[in-house]
Specification:
It is built from twelve helices and eleven strands. With 273 residues, it is an alpha/beta fold. Helix 1 crosses helix 2, helix 8 (120-133) packs parallel to helix 9 and helix 8 packs parallel to helix 12.
Length: 273
């Protein structure tokens, strides 16, 4: 049992919780809670840390019998945890790898592209919403908040395990690759000519979502095939990034479901704007 905060493993978990560089250098990240442990792909799990009080339960010992486990005192576990009310279990996970080409080779892929989003809750919620809406992947610029930040992980509610994601080192090059794969690029923008529900998203589609404060950069907006807007009533100028992304993804999902049910005529794509 680990009883000291000076233990090397304890120090490393704290570093992984707090430092993006540590996560990137080691290719590891941390998830917390029984739900996140039970939903985790087995081959992602590097090590499981369990608080003493939880490990005393025979059913927990049985459940963890096939995993590499370290038991720590409750006090030390509290220092390792990133939450105010630790659940007594956390896992050090291996960073997954995804290939952009595999995403773009799918039939009519639906993607979300995030440029420099900084709020962990927004990014985590977008991943969770993407899974719920049936999207195929989430792409992020290098300056977007680290997807393995503990607050992002919590906001995904497990979708981090199931929604493919990529960090684009060169966003403009990545957008060009999407275009070469016949994926139409839509930018959510205040200057959008058409309302989002006036476009067709039946073919390969990527939605560009910009930074919470500044929106999309002009550089990236100029690469879009079409600028779209979400109509606003009252004095509201725009919506939260996660809300906007959710509206767009679910509209795409609605169109695709209706097409499958024969509710949109021949389901032909509209002409480009």
């Amino acid at each position: 049992m680990i009883t000291s905060a000076s233990n090397g493993q304890v120090k490393n978990v704290v570093q992984l919780q707090q430092k993006t560089k540590a996560r990137r250098d080691q290719g590891l990240f941390v998830v917390e809670g029984m739900k996140m442990f039970r939903e985790a792909p087995r081959n992602w799990i590097h090590k499981v840390f369990v608080a003493e009080h939880l490990y005393q339960k025979p059913e927990i010992q049985t459940e963890l019998s096939d995993y590499p486990v370290e038991v720590v005192t409750d006090k030390i576990f509290g220092q390792m945890s990133d939450t105010k009310t630790p659940q007594g279990i956390l896992c050090v996970m291996k960073t997954p790898r995804y290939d952009l080409r595999r995403l773009t080779e799918k039939s009519n892929p639906l993607l979300v592209v995030l440029e420099d989003l900084q709020d962990p809750g927004n990014v985590g919620t977008i991943l969770r919403t993407a899974e719920g809406a049936g999207a195929d992947g989430v792409l992020m610029s290098r300056n977007t908040v680290d997807i393995f930040h503990p607050k992002v992980i919590r906001a995904t509610m497990g979708s981090i395990y199931r929604m493919p994601f990529l960090v684009a080192e060169d966003m403009e090059k990545t957008i060009q690759m999407l275009k070469e794969a016949k994926i139409r690029i839509y930018a959510a923008h205040l200057r959008g000519k058409n309302s989002y529900d006036e476009e067709s998203y039946l073919g390969g589609t990527a939605f560009l979502i910009g930074n919470e404060g500044n929106g999309l950069s002009e550089r990236l907006s100029d690469q879009a095939d079409c600028l779209i807007r979400i109509p606003m009533e009252g004095h509201v100028e725009s919506l939260n990034a996660a809300m906007s992304a959710g509206i767009l993804m679910y509209e795409a999902g609605r169109q695709r479901r209706n097409c499958g049910r024969g509710r949109q005529g021949n389901c032909a794509r509209r002409k480009k704007v």
